[in-house]
Amino acid sequence: MNESIDLQNRRLIMSFQAYIDNITTKTGQTPEQIKENAVSQGILVEDMKATVFTDWLKKEYDLGHGHAMALWKYFLGHKWIVTKHSKM
After folding, report:
1. Residue 85 lies in a domain
2. Other C-beta atoms lying within 10 Å of the C-beta of residue 63
3. Is residue 83 part of a domain?
4. C-alpha to C-alpha distance for 52 and 46, rounded to whole angstroms
5. 41 domain residue, yes or no
6. pLDDT along the chain (88 residues), means of 10
């Protein structure tokens, strides 16, 4: 049973990484470069809302909603975005 759960977790991690790799291929930029661009444009602000960030990604990089949300999660995971929920 534990091996099955471990395998499922590895698949989810790989699937998420594949999303990030696909974003890098599509945009020609790594998440770190996208972060630098967001900082230079003043997009990353305290108590940021997902919609503001994902709408910017869609406009700036022509990403779909799924890829934009994957970057939202990536940025949250790296603590590049602070929300009222992530402060808790």
Report:
1. no
2. 21
3. no
4. 12
5. yes
6. 61 78 96 97 91 97 95 95 76
